[in-house]
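Design request, tokens follow.
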């Protein structure tokens, strides 16, 4: 497994932006699809989006498409989630995760999460 550490969360007004980072340990970061999830109080964990091992392909949930962008820097073992035009319903704990076995494999490692709160 790999250790994942998220950062960059905080409190922002609706319409604002935040960029989350997820730093990974280990030397095989560039081999894996990485993704972002979120979980709001009382709700199930929700898939936000993911990015292929080389950054060439991304996929987003409909709820964030056009507002959120995932990128990665394999030289820094880091994946990013740029969130623009934030809405109160985006408030949640955001987690990054590693996917094994390509774009359809299971998620095998998770970070501890970072809180994002969007005020109206």
């Amino acid at each position: 497994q790999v250790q994942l550490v998220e950062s960059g969360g905080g409190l922002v007004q609706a319409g604002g932006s935040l960029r989350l980072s997820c730093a990974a340990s280990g030397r095989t970061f560039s081999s894996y699809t990485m993704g972002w999830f979120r979980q709001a109080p009382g709700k199930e964990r929700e898939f936000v989006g993911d990015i292929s091992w080389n950054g060439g392909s991304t996929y987003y949930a409909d709820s964030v498409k056009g507002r959120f962008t995932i990128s990665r820097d394999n030289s820094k073992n880091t994946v990013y989630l740029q969130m623009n035009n934030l809405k109160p319903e985006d408030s949640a704990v955001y987690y990054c995760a590693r996917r094994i076995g390509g774009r359809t494999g299971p998620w095998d490692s998770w970070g501890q999460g970072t809180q994002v709160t969007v005020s109206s």
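Comment from the thread starter after seeing the answer: thanks! The chain has a mean pLDDT of 95.
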